[in-house]
Design a protein that fits this description.
The protein is an all-beta fold. The chain has one domain. The protein is built from no helices and 5 strands. A 5-stranded antiparallel β-sheet has the order 4-3-2-1-5, with no helix packed on it. Strand 1 and strand 2 form a beta hairpin. The radius of gyration is 10 Å and the shape is globular.
Length: about 55
């Protein structure tokens, strides 16, 4: 997945959860993601292996 994830992509954890937007690519390889939960902006860093692209 590392070659496919880019800043601006919409992704989701393989286990489910909210749709998130990739804000930055970090060494690891990991993606810094942002999403809204209860009208609050949330952020998190996830390994590429835990993410899937959504359309």
């Amino acid at each position: 997945m590392a070659d496919q994830v880019q800043v601006g992509d919409v992704v989701q954890l393989l286990s489910g959860g909210p749709s998130m937007t990739v804000e930055d690519i970090i060494q690891g390889p990991r993606a810094k993601c942002v999403w809204f939960a209860e009208d609050k902006l949330q952020t998190g860093v996830f390994a590429f292996a835990l993410l899937k692209k959504v359309s």
